[in-house]
Specification:
This protein is α+β, with helices and mostly antiparallel strands. It has one domain: Alpha-Beta Complex (Peptide Deformylase). A five-stranded antiparallel β-sheet has the order 1-2-3-6-7. The protein has a two-stranded antiparallel ribbon with strand order 4-5. It is globular, with a radius of gyration of 15 Å. The model has no long low-confidence stretch (mean pLDDT 96).
């Protein structure tokens, strides 16, 4: 699987609901987890591979790989935290992003079984980051305009090199 990068319009589009959740998504989820590991990331969403469907995978240290199909954010904490984020679609560039410290999400797994998960720390951050991808939002949209402009300039310079 090739990961698309900043500048590809698919990253700015909303992903579509998956119906039905059939066996093909089990293979897609497995392939996405493999691509995630190859890219040395912690999360990967459908739009990042050109799949405009509401699916993402996460694998944070100390936890098993997780698959989220048709996720809904049920609740986020009021407590906000700043932490450095990067993105496989904006390789090599990082910025501090403020996000809720915890999240409750409802989704379906790769077997089509519904679940609800309450997560905090890095897992919450990765879930929120990947959920944003399903909405056409990138982490650079959540930082100040001057910081975003610096990152965009660095990205363009890296692309020309």
């Amino acid at each position: 699987m090739d990961i698309i990068t900043l500048g590809n319009e698919l990253l700015r589009q909303k992903a579509e609901t998956i119906r039905p959740i059939d066996a093909s998504y089990r293979k897609i989820a497995g392939d996405m987890i493999e691509a995630l590991h190859e890219g040395r990331g912690v999360g990967l969403a459908g739009p990042q591979i050109g799949l405009m469907k509401r699916i993402f995978v996460v694998h944070v240290e100390g936890d098993e790989p997780r698959v989220f199909i048709n996720p809904s954010i049920i609740e986020t904490s009021r407590d906000m935290v700043k932490c450095e984020e990067g993105c496989l679609s904006i390789p090599g560039l990082w910025a501090d992003v403020i996000r809720p410290s915890a999240v409750r999400v409802q989704a379906w797994n790769e077997k089509g079984r519904p679940f609800t998960l309450e997560a905090g720390g890095i897992l919450a951050r990765v879930i929120l980051h990947e959920y944003d991808h399903l909405e056409g939002i990138l982490f650079i949209d959540r930082i100040s305009e001057p910081k975003r402009n610096r990152i965009l300039a660095k990205f363009e310079k890296m692309q020309r090199a």
